């Protein structure tokens, strides 16, 4: 059986009548990302970017290898180095977030609106198994999206239906060498364990290609349901300065599954998270919507309305204001050396004597972004919106995230 037409997938990645002037490609030096760069470069003007997290001593050499590959082919390339705190806890997820943040900033700074990632059908199958283990619902089992918006950029996975072996065959035919990341064989990581489990399922006919087809079927069903939920949210739920507000009675009237899906999406959006909360924890909120703390968010109730806001204790630590991104916010204003973005917190809110005159309650303001120079409060865009700084959710409109693309 012949493999997929990789050039056809590359051409189909973008509308031929509205293709971006330049496609950014995230390249680690591994087979999937290198093949993505090689194939897209046949059809589009591309620029490559590599993130060095500093987590492995070999990473700098691998990034230099990508630079050499791009230099030999006249492809613009830049290496980004993570200078924040080392990812901790769920290392792969934290590293992924760091990559998205760095690459998003790189793309915006160069006027690049679209960035391609090298995920394959194998990644899709592994993701399916991992989410199955977390007891995900339909929206989770529908797999990774072909396109999604984050960090002010439209991200693409043009080869999500192609097996990794096909991309490696392309590289071999072109004489292009790739590197193997040792973390891809480290069983401490859930994805590596999922990969090993998938290899053992071939005996019963379960393959990466087969699971990719299953996720495609589920994604089609998910899209229909998402459109219905979008229409409901457009009539019943509003965004307010990064919070989501819905009438408790309207939410209670939803069928439990629709309520679960809406709350899952809302918590992800407010937290700025790639994934929703654990199924068991979410089920408790679905059964009895009301005041709670979950997934880095707070749910409060007042005058018949439920408000989902960011939990101040879960928000990110301070970061340089020049980056323009903090936690789940994009900020714009007169940045200067030494300024930082961080949570307003109780200390900052105490310096704004008229905050009660605004529309946002105290929990929302505590987690809202503020501009600091040491312990001097420079600006609080949500608590004191008349200043020179503006803050908008980095992931765009909540309602738009309900539509699966």
From TrEMBL:
Coiled coil: none annotated. ATP binds at residues 28-33. It is an enzyme of class 6 (ligase). Transmembrane segments: none annotated. SUPFAM superfamilies: Adenine nucleotide alpha hydrolases-like. Its EC number is 6.3.4.19. Residues 23-196 form the tRNA(Ile)-lysidine/2-thiocytidine synthase N-terminal domain. GO terms for biological process: tRNA modification. Pfam families: ATP_bind_3. Its main location: cytoplasm. It is found in: Cytoplasm. InterPro entries: Rossmann-like_a/b/a_fold, TilS/TtcA_N, tRNA_Ile_lys_synt, tRNA_Ile_lys_synt_N. Keywords: ATP-binding, Cytoplasm, Ligase, Nucleotide-binding, tRNA processing. It catalyses: cytidine(34) in tRNA(Ile2) + L-lysine + ATP = lysidine(34) in tRNA(Ile2) + AMP + diphosphate + H(+). GO terms for molecular function: ATP binding; tRNA(Ile)-lysidine synthase activity. One of its GO terms (cellular component) is cytoplasm. Ligates lysine onto the cytidine present at position 34 of the AUA codon-specific tRNA(Ile) that contains the anticodon CAU, in an ATP-dependent manner. Cytidine is converted to lysidine, thus changing the amino acid specificity of the tRNA from methionine to isoleucine. NCBIfam families: lysidine_TilS_N. The N-terminal region contains the highly conserved SGGXDS motif, predicted to be a P-loop motif involved in ATP binding. Belongs to the tRNA(Ile)-lysidine synthase family. This is tRNA(Ile)-lysidine synthase. It comes from Rhodobacter xanthinilyticus. The gene is tilS.
């Amino acid at each position: 059986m012949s493999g997929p037409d990789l050039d056809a997938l590359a051409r189909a990645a973008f509308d031929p009548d509205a293709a971006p002037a330049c496609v950014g490609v995230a390249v680690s030096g591994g087979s999937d990302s290198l093949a993505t760069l090689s194939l897209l470069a046949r059809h589009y003007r591309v620029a490559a970017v590599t993130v060095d997290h500093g987590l492995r001593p070999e990473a700098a050499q691998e990034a230099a290898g990508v630079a050499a590959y791009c230099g030999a082919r006249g492809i613009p390339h830049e290496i980004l180095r993570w200078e924040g705190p080392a990812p901790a806890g769920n290392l792969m997820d934290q590293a992924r977030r760091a990559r998205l943040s760095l690459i998003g900033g790189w793309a915006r700074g160069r006027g690049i609106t679209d960035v391609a990632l090298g995920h394959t059908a194998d990644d899709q199958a592994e993701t399916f198994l991992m989410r199955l283990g977390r007891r995900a619902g339909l929206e989770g089992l529908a797999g990774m999206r072909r396109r999604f918006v984050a960090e002010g950029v439209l991200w693409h996975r043009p080869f999500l239906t192609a097996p990794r072996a096909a991309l490696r065959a392309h590289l071999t035919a072109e004489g292009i060498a790739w590197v193997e990341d040792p973390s891809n064989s480290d069983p401490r990581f859930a994805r590596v364990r999922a990969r090993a489990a998938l290899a053992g399922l071939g005996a019963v006919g379960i393959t990466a290609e087969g699971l990719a087809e299953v996720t495609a079927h589920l994604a089609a069903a998910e899209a229909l349901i998402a459109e219905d939920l979008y229409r409901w949210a457009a009539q019943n739920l509003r965004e307010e300065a990064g919070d989501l507000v819905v009438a408790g009675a309207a939410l209670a009237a939803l069928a439990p599954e629709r309520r679960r899906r809406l709350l899952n999406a809302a918590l992800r959006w407010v937290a700025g998270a790639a994934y929703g909360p654990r199924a068991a924890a979410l089920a408790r909120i679905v059964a009895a919507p009301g005041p709670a703390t979950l997934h880095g968010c707070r749910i409060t109730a007042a005058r018949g309305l439920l408000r989902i806001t960011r939990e101040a204790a879960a928000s990110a630590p301070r970061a340089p204001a020049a980056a323009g991104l903090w936690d789940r916010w994009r900020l714009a204003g007169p940045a200067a050396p030494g300024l930082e973005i961080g949570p307003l917190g109780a200390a900052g809110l105490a310096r704004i004597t008229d905050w009660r005159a605004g529309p946002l309650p105290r929990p929302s303001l505590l987690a809202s972004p503020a501009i600091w120079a040491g312990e001097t409060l420079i600006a609080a865009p949500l608590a004191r919106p008349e200043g020179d700084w503006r803050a908008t959710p980095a992931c765009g409109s909540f309602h738009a995230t309900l539509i699966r693309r």
